[in-house]
Amino acid sequence: MLFHEARPLLPDGPLRQFAANGFIGVGLFYVLSGFILAYTYLDPRDAQPIEKPKFWRARFARVYPVYLLALVVALPLFLPWGIQKLTASGMIEPTKAIVTAVANVALLQAWLPQTVSQWNAPGWSLSVEGFFYLVFPVIAVALTRKTNRTIALWAGAVWLAGMLVALVFLVAHPEMWRGGEPADVTTGLLFLKFVPPQHLPEFLIGTGCGIFFLRRSSERRPSLGSPAAVSMAVALVLGVILAAPRQLPYPLLHSGVLAPLFALLILSLASERGPLAAILQRPTLVLLGKASYAIYLLHEPLAAIMYKTAWSPFRELDPRLRFVLYLGVVIAVSVAVLYWYEEPARRFIRNLGGRGGRPARQKSQVALGPVPAEKSG
Fold first, then answer.
1. Domain boundaries, the chain
2. 202 Cβ contact partners less than 8 Å away, ≥ 6 residues apart
3. Nearest Cα to Cα of residue 62 among 357, 366, 327, 367
4. d(CA 290, CA 52)
5. Are residues 110 and 124 in contact, defined by beta-carbon separation less than 8 angstroms?
6. To 10 degrees, what angle do helices 259-270 and 25-41 make?
7. Residue 3 CB: number of other CB atoms within 10 A?
8. d(CA 273, CA 218)
9. Which pTM value belongs to this model?
10. 3-state secondary structure string, the chain?
11. For a Cys-Cys bond, which of 56, 113, 129, 329 suits 190, CB 3.0-4.6 Å?
């Protein structure tokens, strides 16, 4: 929400720069998703196949109800564009409208980046997650048969491959070395930002970290260093990187260049020790963590309704007051959605075919963020 709505309200300086880099939270989301799926579904001592239909049903129950609700909320904003395209002469514009609608409903829009921003833009990352869910039962079980060293080598190699793609793009577009958002968004940049395979390294790094964490926990081996010191140090480094006046190149940030730091932060927080983990275990933050999936998907359509519709009573308010009210509305709506729609819908869908995957482990009470992969069967 800071990235999309608060940047114009912040003074020039580190805080505004940090908000401008808010999009890298999607990379953290992918690493964390891989970690939590590994923690939920894998047993490092037993690399048995995951029951794919049950796994996919459980994932569908977890992500799609709120995703569909967000599309419905955003529908009045999408319809004028869609109707304009459908009623245009020729075949090209009507086809664009139909393809965009079908791609968004079917969670395929990340494969067609031109369709990403027309309905509910944050939903593109769920399209990428859908790809991860498709490959997870095969890739993750294969990884559990490997040593930690082999997993680290594979994750590092895949991460470097992703960086190589971004570097090749930078060679072709040297003006983007300076950092910051590009003035012109090319088709190549759209594919670099959105196409699911480009984000697979982040997910695999998270999955590998989850397997590593499970192995060390089952062997009762000590953590690597002090979790408190590691989490604070990594958070500080990330803060400095993201708030610095000179940014890393935009294509690198979008391709997971910070994924190793995210993985280290997640590993240290997973121990649930230290001041940062203690803060994230506070009940209010745990509740916000649970509601954060709905917050993530609903914040843009709610902002459009509150900020842009002609009948909105919020349009004429002071921008800072409006943003505070906007935060309150988004959080209140998302918590209500969590308890009165998201969780009941998830239980209903899961009960249609039973639970999938392995038995759930005890949930962490650390508020880690909007990851639609919690231990829900």
1. 2-353
2. 27, 30, 31, 34, 159, 162, 256, 259, 262
3. 357
4. 25
5. yes
6. 50
7. 15
8. 18
9. 0.87
10. CHHHHHHHHCCCCHHHHHHHCHHHHHHHHHHHHHHHHHHHHCCCCCCCCCCHHHHHHHHHHHHHHHHHHHHHHHHHHHHHHHHHHHCCCCCHHHHHHHHHHHHHHCCCHHHCHHHCCCCCHHHHHHHHHHHHHHHHHHHHHHHHCCCHHHHHHHHHHHHHHHHHHHHHHHHHCHHHHHCCCCCCCCHHHHHHHHCHHHHHHHHHHHHHHHHHHHHHHHCCCCCCCCHHHHHHHHHHHHHHHHHCCCCCCHHHHHCCCCHHHHHHHHHHHHCCCCHHHHHHCCHHHHHHHHHHHHHHHHHHHHHHHHHHCCCCCCCCCCHHHHHHHHHHHHHHHHHHHHHHHHHHHHHHHHHHHCCCCCCCCCCCCCCCCCCCCCCCC
11. 113
Please name the residues in contact with 296: beta carbons below 8 A apart, sequence gap of 6 or more. 122, 370
- First-to-last alpha carbon distance for the chain, in angstroms, is 30
Do 327 and 1 form a contact (C-beta atoms < 8 A)? yes
Count how many residues are written for the chain. 377
Residue with tokens 């963020």: 369
User: Tens digit of pLDDT per residue, the chain (377 long)?
Assistant: 655 666 667 667 777 777 777 788 899 999 999 999 999 999 877 778 899 999 999 999 999 999 999 999 999 989 999 999 999 988 999 999 999 999 999 999 999 998 998 899 999 999 999 999 999 999 998 999 999 999 999 999 999 999 999 999 999 888 888 765 665 667 888 999 999 999 999 999 999 999 999 988 766 655 555 566 666 677 777 776 666 655 778 889 889 999 998 998 898 888 766 676 777 788 999 999 999 999 999 999 999 888 877 677 777 788 888 888 999 999 999 999 999 999 999 999 988 875 544 545 544 444 555 555 444 33
Token readout for 37 is 């799926």
Residue 308: Cβ-neighbour burial (10 angstroms; 0-12, 13-18, 19+): exposed
